[in-house]
C-alpha cells in the first residue's frame, strides 16, 4: 500500500520527539484520528497510596496503517497537528481478533 500522507512519520518527513506511549484504541470513528486510552499509576504522598488513572489522547492515524477499536498501539509525541492532536501512531503492536 502506497502512503501519500504528509503527516506519516514513516514515509514522510514528520519528526517525532519526546515520549512514546502504548495504549488501547477506544475510538476510531473520526477521519485519520484515533482516541488512545493509556493507563498509569501515580503515588499520593499524603495518603501513602497508589492511584490508578487513565488518560485519553487524540492521535493522527496515517493512511498506511489501519487501527481499529481494541487494538494496542504505540503513539509518539510530535508537533501540534490540529487543536487536539499532538501525537501520531507509529506502530500497531497487536490487533484485536474480530471473529464475531
Characterization of the model:
The protein has one domain: OB fold (Dihydrolipoamide Acetyltransferase, E2P) (Beta Barrel), CATH 2.40.50. The model has no long low-confidence stretch (mean pLDDT 91). The chain has 100 residues and is mainly beta. It is globular and about 55 Å long. It has strands at residues 16-27, 33-44, 49-60, 72-78, 87-94. It has no helices and five strands.
Task: Write out key terms for the chains shown.
five-stranded mixed barrel, OB fold (Dihydrolipoamide Acetyltransferase, E2P), mainly beta, 100 residues
Q: Outline of this structure?
A:
The protein has 100 residues and is mainly beta.
Structural class by secondary-structure content: mainly beta
Number of helical stretches of at least 4 residues = 0
Helix content: under 10%
Number of domains: 1
CATH architecture: Beta Barrel
Characterize the largest beta sheet: strand count, sense, and whether it forms a barrel. Answer: 5 strands, mixed, barrel
The CATH class turns out to be: Mainly Beta
Topology order in helix (H) and strand (E) letters: EEEEE
Mean pLDDT: 91
The N- and C-terminal alpha carbons lie at a distance of 27 Å
Shape: globular
Give the C-alpha Rg. 15 Å
* Number of β-strand runs: 5
Amino acid at each position: 500500500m502506497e502512503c501519500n500522507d504528509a503527516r506519516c512519520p514513516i514515509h514522510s518527513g514528520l519528526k517525532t520527539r519526546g515520549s512514546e506511549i502504548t495504549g488501547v484504541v477506544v475510538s476510531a470513528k473520526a477521519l485519520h484520528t484515533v482516541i488512545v486510552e493509556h493507563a498509569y499509576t501515580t503515588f499520593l504522598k499524603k495518603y501513602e497510596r497508589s492511584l490508578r488513572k487513565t488518560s485519553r489522547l487524540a492521535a493522527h492515524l496515517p493512511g498506511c496503517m489501519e487501527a481499529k477499536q481494541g487494538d494496542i498501539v504505540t503513539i509518539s509525541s510530535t508537533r501540534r497537528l490540529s487543536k487536539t492532536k499532538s501525537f501520531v501512531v507509529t506502530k500497531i503492536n497487536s490487533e484485536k481478533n474480530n471473529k464475531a
